[in-house]
Amino acid sequence: MEADAEVEVEVEADAEAEAEARPVWQFMPLLGEVLPVMSDPLQPRILDELLRRGRYLYPTDVVDVIERFHGVEGPGVPRPVIRRYVAELLYRLGSRAPYTVERFEQILDGRVTDLDLWLPDALYEVGPSRVSVYPARWHRTLGGVRDPVRYVEVIAADLAAARGATPDDPSPPAPRRILIDAMMVLGGTSRPAAGGLLQRARLDGRLVVEPFQNPEADVWVADAVSRRPAPADSTASARSTGTAGPTERPAERDAGRP
Q1: Distance of alpha carbon 3 from alpha carbon 254, whole angstroms
Q2: What angle do CA 149, 134, 37 make, to 5 degrees?
Q3: For residue range 110-154, what is the model confidence (pLDDT) as tens digits?
Q4: Could you say which of 1.10.3470, 1.10.8, 2.60.40, 1.10.10 is the CATH number of the domain covering 143-241?
Q5: Are 214 and 177 a contacting pair, CB within 8 Å?
Q6: In terms of CB atoms within 10 Å, which of 17, 69, 108, 177 comes out highest?
Q7: In the 8-state DSSP scheme, what is residue 27?
């Protein structure tokens, strides 16, 4: 009997030691059921940004801000995280709140698409109960990528496909804002770091940025510009300079915004 008791004590001790050695995250499903409030805290920066944008926020705007600054692991943002931010935002807006949480989720669901093509203002289901402003393909092909040239290629290809462009059509530019935001979310860079990488690619002659100091500039892969010297798809360039797009590479400049 004493031997049996000693064995039981040893087994219990081994089990306790194993439990102590196991990382805490292995207990998270169980803890989540008992203590659902144990999750990442809401970031004041995100709430301030959402409040600054006003009461007419659309789901795409909300997911965009959270995805860039909340820092969750894995592609996209878990729906419960989005719901927590929206609930807090609506609470702070009080009587000025434009909708309920339930109505927000209905609008969000209406924005979600299963397309594998990036479209402005669309949302994408990139995993179980996970939503992103970028399609799952972007997460697969651009996850961890820091080279802005690769982003411009992917963005331009999707914009061309969305417009039904043919291979002979001018390559559309990638809007600088979309490029920088994608590098932050998918490449894991900060905004200044993404801007620095874009600046370096421009100075290396791999990218063309026009108008150079405009935050709403258009960005082309230099090879595409050399093959098509006057792309008609320019947006910011056409508005700012009255031209259809860059006809040559801009001179290298060492100062200013990329």
Answers
A1: 80
A2: 130
A3: 999 988 999 988 999 999 999 999 999 999 999 999 999 999 999
A4: 1.10.10
A5: no
A6: 108
A7: G
